[in-house]
Specification:
This protein is an alpha/beta fold and about 450 residues long. It has 14 helices and 11 strands. β8 and β9 form a beta hairpin. The radius of gyration is 23 Å and the shape is globular. The chain binds pyridoxal-5'-phosphate. The site of pyridoxal-5'-phosphate has 13 residues, from α6.
Length: about 450
């Protein structure tokens, strides 16, 4: 079958661009088809004969179109959904077109160089040690899992147990100390790594959802000499609050614990002088996880796992096989030694492009601007009679309008009306509207029309 790749790839890229351009101009819509209709559009029996690639792409576009959500648009405030910057998106198209495998230098010297450069730039922006290792993973879930895996290796080594060889059966039990408001991915990491969620020792938080350092001290004291992993948080998923990283890490280190910081979005506070104080002391931790696909506005999927002890990071995550040309003890650690996967998409191109497009000033501006927009949203809503439940220190806003028991009805009305998309959450026992401003293309006007839409939704529900 003769395929015109230029035409085929141009068609796919043009459709992506069409989606991006129209998502900013049109009302944000819920998928207009139900699950059965979409399943039917994609379904049917797989034919025995090949299909022309151009036809496949046309059919894919037609089938997917009604089920696409405008998450990349400027008025999608649910979850913590970043946009996708123009250069990063184009770089990701290139990563796919080039189809590089980012396992090691032999498979793609370019992917390796891009990851190293982008990793170094990111460490600089986030205030992390220059010597820290960086693994490019799927997202913060994977980054948190890597951080805790490396910590597991270290704290068990400290008590004379080789977990890589002997596993966890019979090992001295590890305690994971984390705030009551940790992200749920910490619990999943605990399950995946064989600790089980019962090994998590929750620590109470303050009124804003940051870990209570006095309670942390009491918890750590009660553990005596048990091996411990302390999970701190930069950016509570509801409030944006950051733990007191300096005090908490110092306490944990005095007791020999490993400190991991989950900073899926909040670590980026370090990149702006106006918010850097929120993550003061971040450099003291042992491992960190963050996302590029949230606040940095890199397309999905892309996260980064950092570790202060690069050699231990590589020793924990690497594997060896005789056919793996370009890897092994005689070479420096390779990129795939720092991630849970070996074969990987070349994620570094998009991160490199996003950072190059913005520069250090642009990243600082992105953080400052989205925080200012979150504050503007809070002010507009408060002026319309809403209650704001958190100190808007970053890009997250928690809102109720009238009795919080009405929250789900309001969220539903706002989503149906379609000007913007907000979700609901339960925080400190109340159902609240949750707004996350994480998209670089969001403007003051987007905030104003969205605040009006939320107030309209409240009035109509
Ligand atoms: C604090 C925090 N940690 C972890 C995650 C999980 O991130 P991902 O979905 O990229 O794995 C999130 C997602 O919102 C988050 O906010």
């Amino acid at each position: 079958m003769d395929v015109d790749l230029h035409q085929l790839f141009a068609r796919a890229a043009a459709e992506g661009a069409r989606h991006r351009v129209t998502v900013a101009d049109h009302p944000l819509q819920q998928p207009s088809l139900d699950r059965e209709s979409l399943a039917a559009a994609f379904g049917g029996p797989l034919g025995a004969d090949p299909t022309d690639p151009g036809r496949v792409v046309d059919d894919l576009i037609a089938a997917a179109h009604p089920g696409l959500v405008g998450t990349v648009g400027p008025r999608f405030f649910g979850f913590v959904i970043g946009g996708a910057s123009p250069a990063a998106t184009a770089a990701d198209l290139l990563a796919t077109g080039w189809d590089q495998c980012a396992y090691n230098e032999v498979l793609s010297p370019a992917a390796a160089a891009a990851e190293r450069a982008a990793g170094n730039w990111t460490k600089q922006l986030l205030g992390l040690p220059e010597t820290a290792s960086v693994g490019f993973v799927t997202g913060a879930q994977a980054a948190n899992t890597v951080g805790l895996a490396v910590g597991r290796q270290r704290v068990l080594r400290d008590v004379g147990w080789d977990v890589a060889r002997d596993g966890l059966f019979g090992a001295p039990p590890i305690v994971i100390v984390a705030s009551e408001e940790r992200h749920a991915t910490i619990d999943r990491a605990a399950r995946l790594l064989g600790f089980g969620t019962r090994s998590i020792e929750p620590v109470a938080t303050n009124a804003q959802g940051a870990i209570d350092v006095d309670r942390l001290r009491t918890t750590l004291d009660a553990l005596r000499d048990r091996p411990a992993l302390v999970c701190l948080q930069a950016g509570n998923v509801n409030t944006g609050a950051c733990d007191d990283l300096r005090s908490a890490t110092t306490l944990a280190h005095e007791r020999g614990a490993w400190v991991h910081v989950d900073g899926a979005f909040g670590l980026w506070a370090a990149a702006s002088p106006s918010t850097a104080h929120l993550v003061d002391g971040v450099e003291l931790a042992d491992s960190w996880g963050t996302d590029a696909h949230k606040w940095l506005n890199v397309p999905y999927d892309c996260g980064l796992a950092f570790c202060a002890d690069a050699a231990l990071h590589a020793a924990t995550m690497s594997y060896a096989a005789s056919y793996l040309t370009g890897s092994g003890a005689d070479s420096d650690y390779v990129l795939g030694d720092l991630t849970p996967e070996s074969s990987r998409r070349a994620r570094g191109f998009a991160v490199w492009a996003a950072l190059r497009e913005l520069g250090t000033g642009g990243v600082a501006d992105l953080v400052e601007r989205t925080c200012a927009l979150a504050r503007r949203m809070a002010e507009r809503l408060a002026a319309g009679g809403a209650s704001i439940h958190n100190d808007v220190v970053l890009n997250q806003v928690l809102v109720s309008i009238g009795d919080p028991s009405r929250t789900d009805a309001i969220v539903d009305a706002v989503q149906r009306e379609g000007t913007c998309w907000v979700g609901g959450t339960t925080w400190h026992g109340q159902r609240l509207i949750r707004v996350s401003v994480s998209n670089a293309t969001t403007t003051e006007r987007d905030i104003d029309v969205s605040a009006d839409a939320i107030l309209r939704g409240a009035a109509s529900s």
